[in-house]
Amino acid sequence: MLDLLTVLLIAFVILLLIQIFALVRIKQMIVRLRTMLKIISPILQRHHDIQNARRVNMRICQFCKYRQAFIKTTSEADDEFYYRCKIKSREVELTDSCNFFELESEL
What are the TM regions of this chain, as residue ranges (predicted)? Predict the structure, then answer.
């Protein structure tokens, strides 16, 4: 009976040591992954910001089929464009947007 108790105690201690060793290795892996993430994160964030900057909001008056372009002519040959909305009958900026937006078919 004493031999069986000693064998079980030794087996228990060996399994406990294996678990401790495994937990230490897992902790080391997590620390390494964290450091790699700290290095990679700014690069990925920069890439994400560049991708967002490239996206153009297509739902603005610049791309709307109801936008009309006109030229203000002056005597000093200082011509400039202004834009009107066909639906709202008012001046608009190219960056404006509204619920009546429809994409211009020529784009």
Answer: 6-26
